[in-house]
Amino acid sequence: MERMNSTQLTEFILTGIPYPPKLRIFLFLFFLVIYILTQMGNLLIFLTVCIDSQLHARPMYIFLGVLSIMDMGTSSIIVPRLIMNFTPGIKPIPFGGCVAQLYFYHFLGSTQCFFYTLMAYDRYLAICRPLHYPVLMTSKVCFLMVAGAWVAGSIHGAIQATLTFCLPYCGPNQVDYFFCDIPAVLRLACADTTINELVTFVDIGVVVASCFSLILISYVHIIQAILRIRTADGRRRAFSTCGAHVTVVTIYYVPAAFIYLRPEANSPLDGAAALFPTTITPFLNPLIYTLRNKEVKLALKRMIGDRRAMSKN
């Protein structure tokens, strides 16, 4: 752990999350089960959207299917390494592995922000401009939006990874976090990080603030349109189509803002907050979208019914 000014680090050690030693096995099994259920739940949503003809032709569910891929990716980047921390011994992560983890986390995280915004825009068009919806939200437009979100996310991730790892790292190599993220890694740099912290704050702040503002504006118009619906049943159905999206946006943006958009990003609560976008949200998304969305539940029933019919034949 000695600081060697002339030697570039080749690996980092992730300290993980603090826990009582007696809970080691419980936490190992807990996060392992969470990871398995996350992968299975999101894979089920993705397959349902792909297989069901009534879903994969609608932009709202195309976005949901792609969101499931991102949740599987985010969980796979973070949770296996987190689980390893509950096994005996020190398991360092290579320097290149740390770079890749940071890049893909911010790549998928920013892309997810863009997708939540696209999903809000889709709901705005469907509820506020239903007659123009088929013209404004065509398959081509939907594909371009999806591709644009992926490209913008990859650029954002590349900027953050490049800015973070262009600095020299000569020791110590202990990252006081459960994955390689910007605030924790920058504390180990052997150089002034003021500019990096400022650029990170502004860059992530612009992405989060602009996406959240567009979502908020969309829902202001959506609520106004829903309140103009005369029947209580019509208002209920309109609200139900937006409820799941509002829920996942809330549990995603609040922890992200707490971690990155504070002047002092070195709080013991950062690790607990980071568990939400990295572990809890990917696990909850399939549950939220299936329990609150009748069309997804019907599609799952149709898919299960078709499987049973094929097995009987």
TrEMBL record:
It is found in: Cell membrane. GO terms for molecular function: G protein-coupled receptor activity; olfactory receptor activity. This is Olfactory receptor 10G3-like. Pfam families: 7tm_4. Keywords: Cell membrane, Membrane, Olfaction, Sensory transduction, Transducer, Transmembrane, Transmembrane helix. The chain crosses the membrane at residues 25-49, 61-83, 103-121, 141-159, 204-227, 239-261, 273-291. The keyword Transmembrane applies. It is a multi-pass membrane protein. Residues 41-289 form the G-protein coupled receptors family 1 profile domain. GO terms for cellular component: plasma membrane. It comes from Monodelphis domestica. InterPro entries: GPCR_Rhodpsn, GPCR_Rhodpsn_7TM, Olfact_rcpt. The keyword Lyase does not apply. GO terms for biological process: detection of chemical stimulus involved in sensory perception of smell.
